[in-house]
Amino acid sequence: AQINGVTQSAVSQQISTLENRFQAKFIERSKKNFTLTKEGETLYKSSKQIVQSYDELRHRIQEIQNIVTGTIKVVTIYSIGLHELPPFLKKYLKKHPTVNISVEYRRATQLYDDIITGIADIGLVAYPQKDPRLQVTSLDEDLLVLICHPEHELAQESKVKLSEISKHKFIAFEPDIPTRRAIDKILRDRNVEVEHSMEFDNIETVKRAVEINAGISIVPRSPVIQEVAKKTISMVEIEDEKFYRPLAAVHKKTKVLSPAMKEFLSLLKKG
Questions:
Q1: For residue range 24-45, what is the model confidence (pLDDT) as tens digits?
Q2: Residues 160, 168: Cα–Cα separation, whole Å
Q3: Which is it for strands 70-76 and 99-105: parallel, antiparallel or unpaired?
Q4: Rounded distance, CA 133 to CA 254, Å?
Q5: What count of other Cβ atoms lies within 10 Å of the Cβ of residue 206?
Q6: What is the pTM of this model?
Q7: How many other C-beta atoms can be found within 10 angstroms of the C-beta atom of residue 128?
Q8: What is the pLDDT of residues 179-195, one digit of tens each?
Q9: Backbone dihedral region for residue 66 (phi beyond 0: left; psi -120 to 50: alpha; all else: beta)
Q10: Segment 219-240, tens digit of pLDDT
Q11: CA-CA distance, 48 to 183, in Å (whole number)?
Q12: Concatenated DSSP letters for the chain?
């Protein structure tokens, strides 16, 4: 009801009408639980197919007519949505003002579910996972850098070896986040152990912790450019070698993309 901007009673009436029409019970109603019956599961799956078929028809007709309009539902991880995406959105919407783009922030695990189940059209991720159901479009790469408080002893260095960071408190992403797993592997491969003093689920909180000198961290470069310019955070290059975080756009392989979606992906790919 909230998503579609209608009252709860209106939804209940529509479901009751469907149950009367098909002479079947679709929902198990109780005060504690809300579950679908077997008939309800069938109705749900078939309805999704009907909606998808309608969307595909609409997109094919738009493509024939070369019409770039409609809605694009984008799901993104925080670092891309807050720092990489805005300039692309501005450029795209200036060219196609009739397109409505909705952007929602997700943890990576939830993001992939949203794409596979059809809740969203396009997902923006780092370290894209391999899945036969997904089409992956490679985008830019972002250099991984070490960040610390301007008064931290490492802030005086232009470059730092990974072996030097083990004695400092380390602020990390939470274990299920792809960037955390990639950083863990980089450190593990070089036999570097760090003391995880804090763990967060997004780049913004990691930066705030570094700004109060709670520890150092390794993060993508682009999300910290503003803080480095304001001198609230110091950025130090990693001397061992250059490590990059790959970015990508993902969508369901079986999804028929509208001209608006194709144009959006093309713009992202061009960088």
A1: 999 987 767 788 999 999 999 8
A2: 13
A3: parallel
A4: 8
A5: 26
A6: 0.76
A7: 21
A8: 999 999 999 999 999 98
A9: left
A10: 999 999 999 999 999 999 999 9
A11: 39
A12: -TTTT--HHHHHHHHHHHHHHHT---EEE-SS-EEE-HHHHHHHHHHHHHHHHHHHHHHHHHHHHT---EEEEEEE-HHIIIIIHHHHHHHHHHH-TTEEEEEEE--HHHHHHHHHTTS-SEEEEESPPP-TTEEEEEEEEEEEEEEE-TTSGGGG-SEE-GGGGTTSEEEEE-TTSHHHHHHHHHHHHTT---EEEEEESSHHHHHHHHHTTS-BEEEESGGGHHHHHHTSSEEEEESS---EEEEEEEEETT----HHHHHHHHHHHH-
Work out the number of other CB atoms within 10 angstroms of the CB of residue 233: 23
> What are the tokens at 240?
């061992």
Q: According to the 3-state scheme, what is the secondary structure of 216-247?
A: EEEEECHHHHHHHHHCCCEEEEECCCCCEEEE
Backbone angles phi, psi at 48, to 5 degrees: -60, -40
- Taking the C-alpha atoms of residue 40 and residue 250, their distance in angstroms, rounded to an integer, is 30
Residue 82: phi and psi, rounded to 5, are: -85, -30
Rounded Cα–Cα distance for residues 206 and 144 (Å): 14
Q: Which of 86, 56, 75 is nearest to 121 (CA)?
A: 75
Residue indicated by tokens 């380390």? 170
Q: Which two tokens stand for residue 6?
A: 């209608």
